[in-house]
Amino acid sequence: MISVMHYFKFTIAIFFIGVHTGLAQDNHALSTYLKSQESIINIPQSINAPRFNAPYLDQVEIRTESDRLRFNRQRYSLRLTPMTPKIRKLQKNLYNDLAALHAFETSDVRHESIIESYTEWLAYYFINEELTLLKTKLPLHSDLLNNAKKDLPNDAFDYISLVEQERAVLRLKHKIAALELQQSWYPQFDEDNSLLISPEEIIALVESNDLMVNNNASIQKAKLNLSKIANEKAIEKAKKNKVFDFVQMEYRGPHDEDLERKISFSAAFRLPMAGENKLDLAALDLERLGEQNEILIEEMNQEFVNTRSKIELKRIIQQYQLNVAQYKEILQNTKSIEGYIPQSKNEIKDILELKLDDINEAIDLLDQKKEIYESYLEWLENSGKIFELPLTNYLHPRLLSVH
């Protein structure tokens, strides 16, 4: 029995080391990984669009006319429709808006890469944590198997129990092998000694940042569309108010009448009250109202999402903190059996199963912890803050810039 008592003290020590390691030692290297992925993530937010030079002439026309099929008296005219400086400036502004919208669309690739980096690291982290706990379970299951094989005095040999323990060991080994395979899918992560941001720090960060409305991608895109519509409307108004229409030079073919002019110049002026683009202006007003309504609705929705996300995070974290406190009490209760010497196979089995129950509760806590960080990542994505350059590692407790 002395050897049994010594064994139990040894396994209890391993158990506490394993569980506390799984809960407290939060290693990661996401900052390093983000920096190594700059070639993918750090896509410029504005594209290198070709330079746009607004034209000085809107139209250039060459016309010809014959005089009753007398081709020796052919007429030729050159008509130039100039572009006003105001319209040229507005066209440049509109082009810049179109380029910004195009760049905004391509930024989706950068955003997906950033979110994928966080998601992959969290998957890698929780695989490691679960592996730590499962590997702590393995010697306990092996000891249950060895215990089932023993034929101690006053204990009947239970063949069914032996088979059940063999199957339990096999299932656990299979699960460990599966997680180790998943772990190999993330070779880009090298662990360091940085701590993962705590649930308490998450709450503090969420409470101190009202980021939803300011950084939301849908609102940013709608504001770019508003700017584009404003420039389109300004161009239509400038065209409507344009007074000077065109200048024309005409040449009349060779003839014998010296008094008839061969070259003449003419110019045309427009009346600003003409309403040829009135419908276009009205359509742009409707489009502007649509974008403004979208911004208003999105802002209201984001305020709701922000409030809901905060409440949900608080709820999950408070429940997690309560469960951790209760789990610590259970661990203290389990620790009380350290000096006890089991008197039978059944007592050995009961003690081992008691410890396995504790580890299973630790795994349940790990699942709750995972839910916290998934909700936190969702809040970061909705806020848009996670996409701002230079990139910041929002899983680090000190939120260090990766640049």
Secondary-structure blueprint:
Elements: H1 2-24, H2 30-36, H3 38-41, E1 57-67, E2 70-82, H4 85-149, H5 159-183, H6 199-208, H7 212-215, H8 217-240, E3 244-252, E4 263-269, H9 278-335, H10 345-383
Antiparallel strand pairs: 1-2, 2-3, 3-4
Helix pairs in contact: 1-4, 1-10, 4-5, 4-8, 4-10, 6-9, 8-9, 9-10
Describe this structure in words.
With 403 residues, the chain is of the alpha+beta class. It has a single domain, classed as Outer membrane efflux proteins (OEP) (Up-down Bundle), CATH 1.20.1600. Helix content is 64%, strand content 10%. The protein has ten helices and four strands; from the N terminus they run αααββαααααββαα. The protein has a four-stranded antiparallel sheet, with no helix packed on it. α1 runs parallel beside α10. It is rod-shaped and about 130 Å long. The two termini are 60 Å apart. The N terminus is likely disordered.
